[in-house]
Amino acid sequence: KLIKKARTIDLKGATVIPGFIDAHFHLKNYGKRLEQLNLKGVRSLQEIETLIKDKLQHVKKNEWILGFGWDQNLWKHKRFPQSAFLNSIAPNNPIYFTRIDGHASWVNDAAISRANVTINQMNNIDGGKVINNCVVVDNAMGVFKNYLPKENKEQVKKWIYSATKKAAQMGITGVHDAWQDRTTVEAIIELINENKFPIRCYGMLSGNDRQLLNEFFKKGHYQNDYLTIRSVKAFIDGALGSRGAALHEPYCDDQHNCGLILISKEEFANLAKLCYKNNFQLNTHAIGDRGNDYALTHYANTLGKNNDRRWRIEHAQMVADSDIMRFKEFNILPSMQPSHCTSDMRWLPERIGHHRLNLISRWQSFINAGLKIPGGSDCPIETGNPLFEFYAAVTRQDHFGWPKEGFQSQEKVTRHNALKMFTSWAAYGGFAEQRRGKIEKGFDADLTIIDNNILSVNPQDIIKSKVLYTIVSGQIFC
User: Fold this and answer.
1) Would you kindly state where each structural domain of the chain is located, as residue ranges?
2) What is the pTM of this model?
3) What class is the 153-472 domain?
4) Burial level of 341, CB count in 10 A (0-12/13-18/19+)?
């Protein structure tokens, strides 16, 4: 039955699909990064020097300078920076520049002094290290947390509101927010009550905040039309770009380094048991083959076979054949981000060697094993544009069509499966497959309208496609 007062739109041949769901997103960080020095895509130290000097004209002496998105792989020599670079440009202002993967930060001596820590102390932190006296990796980044500019709830609300608006503009009707602390949870609830939260959100609680977890474990799952919280996020290892992803064999361009394990066996086993006991989904970051092995072993010990807990491994970027079968055996979901593959593929051969490239981003292998893949972007690590993710999944090429056949082309997925990754499979990863991810009677009216049919247009036209409308619960947001 049609609602008589419903608004009718002539789409003039446009394509209607179930609303895009991004199964790995960072709402707060996306909004926050929009206010920081943008180092994404910067291809030289000279460009960075210019950006810093310009920023110095607008900040006070001793004021923090924050930035995000640098990637040494884009620079001519592809080497991590030396400490003298930042120290010579801004000796009086503490600098904290987060790498594109979020697993390393570039700091100057003023920042280290402000944190009241030494290089040796940071090198002795389990799961952390310092490169060239200025690049702090993974757990070593934590020493700066209490010294960086404090965040308040109003700021966080502003960042999240900005992020949700931009997500809706990209055709996203729902995200899985992959790290929620107390302030983030409270900010989202307040925004929903103020009618300033236009998309759905599936929250993953911060796995290192035991007090927050205990409160939710005691109360049980939280759910309304726009926010669901029934999962926990944990970290096993770092990233390939900063050589913190845990590998079985050393990095080919760093022969004494097999990456980092960020959490002890005892701590992770305890967290897994608590999540299982309280019926909370556990979603764990694991990128390297050793990192995935580590996570799978603990999952298997806790879950047992024939479960429907839908625990996830976030990224699952480098996985052996034997471990793919363990995903299937214990019903573990690989939550994957296609553009990570296409962003990394140019430097992966020198990082892990040609003999291990077949382990990277094994989407079709997972599908062949009968697994559903919740698809995401890891925004702001990547752009967050679901059309870019869809394109990466079906081509395994950059936006210029390189490489011609696609990187490790045997792992390309069909367009229908790529669409499932960002609709029904993403919904399944958040226990919402009975009401979201499809256009069917009884499902939420979450729709994305695109000017092209992405299931049939030429590949290059996928990334040129435009989102015309984003509809959440029957309401048009763009």
Assistant:
1) 32-144, 153-472
2) 0.96
3) alpha beta
4) buried
